[in-house]
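Lab notebook, bench 4. Continuing the backlog of folding jobs that were queued last week. Each job is logged with the same field layout so the records can be merged later without manual cleanup. Today's entry covers Transposase Tn5-like N-terminal domain-containing protein, a 88-residue chain. Filled in by technician R.K.

JOB TYPE: sequence-to-structure
TARGET: Transposase Tn5-like N-terminal domain-containing protein
LENGTH: 88
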Amino acid sequence: MYISTPQDWATSLFGQANLGDPRRTKRLVKVATNLALHTGESLVKSSQQPAEIEGAYRFIRNESIHANDIAEAGFQTTTQRLTAMIYC
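JOB STATUS: finished
OUTPUT FIELD FOLLOWS
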């Protein structure tokens, strides 16, 4: 899979995250996309609208979201990509 944009990257890496609610996964992809678009910037500076900033902070403060679940999405995606590769 060719990843050409930060949105593509975030979707491919986190789009299948199991966070208990699809809206949480959508927010994760949005936050990751914004941070990738504005590498090195703060969460506030990477967000375009005040609602995005508030949504990102609500996501971070949400006790139902665990870092291990986010990491697991990345591990699963990486495993799938490596499994699909053809080694010579």
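OBSERVATION: Helices lie at 6-14, 22-37, 43-46, 50-61, 67-84.
SIGNED: R.K.
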